[in-house]
Design brief:
The protein is α/β, with parallel strands linked by helices and 293 residues long. Helix content is 40%, strand content 17%. α3 crosses α4 and α5 crosses α6.
Amino acid sequence: MKIRFGIGLGAETGPDELTAIVDHLEATGVDSLWFSELVYSKAVDPFIGMAHALARTDNLKVGTSVAVLPGRHPVLVAKQLASLAALAPKRVLPVFGLRSAIAAEREIFVVPDGKRAAVFDESLRLLRSVLEQDDVSFAGDFFAASSVAVAPRPLKSLDIWLGGSAPAGFRRIGRLGDGWLGSFLTPAEARDGREQIQREAQRAGRAIDEDHYGINLAVCEGPVPDELAVAIRRRRPDLEPTELIADSWSRLHRQLDAYLEAGLSKFVIRQAGPTGTADFIDRFVAELVPRQN
């Protein structure tokens, strides 16, 4: 399996910092940069951020971690992805989720009441059809399209990864996704999720590449910040925050060993402390780039 590490940006990283970060990542050979969908923050919009990063680099890959698909028209999303892929082939890594993790932002991704999961499934089918076929006609419960052709269509099909940590999400990934990027899961839970996805894919007559399983992780140098610890406890009250957030690089390495043993090989690492971004990138490069293969 190809082991790869990328850096994820959070709500604290705004437009004034992005160019320097992108240039630093390209200069130091970091594999990928990941943009979170955080509408009510100074974070750069994922699609805008990806375009900016791709325009300044030759090697850096970019991804969404994760973008919300239900509430967007899948044909327009296909056009955005196709345009990015044409500008930077093999460097666009889309990951989509069911809904925003931030309750206040869920109202802006409008779908019919009680239909979000069904809209997500249909959106994924239409998105994939438009990216892979020249002339698409589609009639579903939520979308209709006639003779749709997005140009230029990617020469190689884009892998569409999905987030999620619930059984229904794992079933969706197995049926409709090309990979999984999880979060807030222990190594044992991540192993179980991967196995559920693989079983569902097999039932659907599909196969997902063994190295298409990843997870978001965070590291800080010292105690987990109080605000982050509260957020972790709110989402996972059954776990201590340090089970999910590494409080040192040595602890992160031990966590990585466990996730690798669980069958995951792609990691998006976020800064979770007061360390300056440039210093964090340099430490990331020193600690993690040697672990890639």
